[in-house]
């Protein structure tokens, strides 16, 4: 039994990773359209056989090392997941999971109304890990299981091999990946196939990103999805959103096949952005891992006990953009006679605590025979809708709004089976103005800049005749800039909106006096300056 191994790149390699991840986005051609056999791909989206969009929300389970922990699948489902990624072995490094064992895993997934992603773990770190097997060997294993897998296309995704290349010559990943895909297709597999990235799954040198078009084109069915694993390499919002948007903008299907949140000696993964970006882009995510890790900090459940979630488990299942709030059960199970009755519509929301950039919405709870698991707040514009925020409570605060602007919001409820309620009534909210001009001036400038980041300076001046004692400065970044560190004040950031509160040594600004703030931040390919600033709710003049 060996729960898991991973090699992490050296510090210099991580720096190279960050530069590579922040390279300009690639221009990919629109990928081929998929055949419609079971779970499939169309226009870059993962769909069920009936054409419904399917967004994976689930976790990884180390079945091959803990074959007796089949209760875990029921526990994972009970916490709201719609998918489980199951660790298997092909016999190269660990004892092979037999055909009867794999058939039982699939049966357990179906009994618990879960979509089952099956992966071979023996390939982990090939080229750097001497014991690792090849993708070709993994493909042969899947072919040996064809009688078990055939006919399960509505329920099973085949992840050819876990993290199938280390950090040694990761460019060697592309050709074997294409060959394994073709081998499975030539053997008659119609399932959606998932492929993991090199660099131990993290693609910090951009090999999968740069070759995604050619790999996707090699699959004659178009039923191929890419899987990125996000750990300590992905410790800033910019790295995460840039990588995911590269694929989304190219209509190439992708999900976060593994991710961790707890920090380690190599960095602190930004799991909040991973989960928020996945929800915003409607991409799947599968957290590592249920239980039994050699590093227990990554256990979602302590000792396989669903009643003892770790802090990491509570974050994944019950936190913002977590599984409980965002998971929807695959409709293939509803068609089999399960729960198809949606919740009642939530009450029409009411607005309170309206500011120039946010509003709190509250509504009467929906009801459902099996229980309401979450609510989706949407912004309504004529006949179109844009997702605003998801929550498990009957209230939510929508942020990132523009001053003096009218918005219309409504709410949907969801139940454990993924049924969505009728839409609630709508409420229209007009945000407050940014305030009349204050006796202040703001000068903003970039003092240094590098790929993926920059250093900035803000000079805040008192242009009035009396002292300013205590202040809060706010602005909205035009694109995806995000504050990493700020001195001269205490910064918080929600989306593009930044708020900086004074500290003891900057709180008082005498007439004609000024204070200077400095900060570092991440950025994308452009770095435009903010258009406006407010001080204590009133507009400041640019200087």
From TrEMBL:
Keywords: Carbohydrate metabolism, Cellulose degradation, Glycosidase, Hydrolase, Polysaccharide degradation, Signal. Pfam families: CBM_2 (PF00553), Cellulase (PF00150), fn3 (PF00041). It catalyses: Endohydrolysis of (1->4)-beta-D-glucosidic linkages in cellulose, lichenin and cereal beta-D-glucans. Residues 345-434 form the Fibronectin type-III domain. It is an enzyme of class 3 (hydrolase). Residues 1-34 form the signal peptide. The keyword Signal applies. It comes from the Bacteria. Residues 333-353 are annotated as: Disordered. SMART domains: CBD_II, FN3. Residues 433-543 form the CBM2 domain. Its EC number is 3.2.1.4. The keyword Aminoacyl-tRNA synthetase does not apply. PANTHER family: ENDOGLUCANASE, LIPOPROTEIN. Belongs to the glycosyl hydrolase 5 (cellulase A) family. This is Endoglucanase. It comes from Streptomyces shaanxiensis. The lineage of its organism: Bacteria, Bacillati, Actinomycetota, Actinomycetes, Kitasatosporales.
């Amino acid at each position: 039994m060996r729960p898991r191994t991973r090699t992490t790149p050296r510090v210099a390699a991580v720096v190279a990773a960050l530069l590579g991840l922040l390279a300009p986005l690639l221009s990919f051609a629109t990928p081929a359209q998929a055949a419609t056999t079971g779970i499939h791909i169309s226009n870059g989206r993962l769909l069920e056989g009936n054409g419904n969009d399917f967004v994976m929300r689930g976790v990884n389970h180390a079945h091959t090392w803990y074959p007796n922990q089949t209760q875990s699948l029921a526990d994972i489902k009970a916490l709201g997941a719609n998918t489980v990624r199951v660790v298997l072995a092909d016999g190269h490094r660990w004892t092979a999971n037999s055909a009867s064992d794999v058939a039982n895993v699939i049966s357990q997934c179906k009994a618990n109304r879960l979509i089952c992603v099956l992966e071979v773990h023996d390939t982990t770190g090939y080229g750097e890990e001497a014991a690792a097997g090849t993708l070709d060997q993994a493909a042969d294993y899947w072919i040996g299981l064809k009688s078990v897998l055939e006919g399960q296309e509505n329920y099973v995704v085949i992840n050819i091999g876990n993290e199938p290349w280390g950090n040694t010559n990761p460019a060697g990943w592309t050709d074997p990946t294409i060959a394994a895909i073709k081998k499975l297709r030539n053997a008659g597999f119609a399932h959606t196939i998932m492929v993991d990235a090199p660099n131990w799954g993290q693609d910090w040198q951009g090999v999968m990103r740069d070759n995604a078009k050619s790999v996707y084109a090699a699959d004659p069915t178009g039923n191929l999805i890419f899987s990125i694993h996000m750990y300590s390499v992905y410790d800033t919002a910019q790295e995460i959103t840039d990588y995911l948007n590269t694929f989304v903008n190219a209509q190439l299907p992708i999900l976060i096949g593994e991710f961790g949140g707890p920090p380690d000696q190599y960095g602190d993964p930004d799991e909040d952005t991973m989960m928020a970006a996945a929800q915003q882009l409607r991409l799947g995510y599968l957290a590592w891992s249920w239980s039994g890790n050699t590093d227990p900090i990554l256990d979602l459940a302590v000792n396989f006990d669903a009643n003892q979630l770790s802090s990491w488990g509570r974050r994944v299942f019950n936190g913002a953009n977590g599984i409980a709030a965002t998971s929807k059960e695959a409709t293939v199970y509803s068609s089999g006679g399960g729960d198809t009755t949606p919740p009642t519509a939530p009450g029409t929301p009411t607005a309170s605590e309206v500011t120039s950039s946010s509003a709190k919405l509250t509504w009467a709870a929906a009801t459902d025979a099996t229980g309401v698991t979450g609510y989706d707040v949407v912004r309504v514009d004529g006949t179109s809708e844009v997702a605003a925020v998801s929550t498990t409570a009957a209230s939510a605060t929508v942020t990132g709004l523009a001053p003096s602007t009218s918005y219309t919001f409504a709410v949907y409820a969801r139940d454990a089976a993924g049924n969505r309620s009728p839409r609630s009534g709508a409420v229209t909210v007009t945000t407050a103005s940014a305030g009349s001009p204050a006796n202040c001036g703001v000068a903003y400038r970039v003092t240094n800049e590098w790929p993926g980041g920059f250093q900035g300076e803000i000079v805040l001046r008192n242009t009035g005749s009396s002292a300013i004692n205590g202040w809060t400065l706010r602005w909205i970044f035009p694109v995806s800039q995000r504050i990493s560190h700020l001195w001269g004040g205490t910064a918080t950031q929600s989306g593009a909106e930044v708020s900086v509160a004074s500290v003891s040594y900057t709180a008082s600004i005498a007439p004609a006096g000024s204070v200077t703030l400095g900060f570092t931040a991440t950025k994308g390919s452009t770095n435009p300056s903010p258009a406006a600033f407010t001080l204590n709710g009133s507009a400041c003049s640019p200087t």
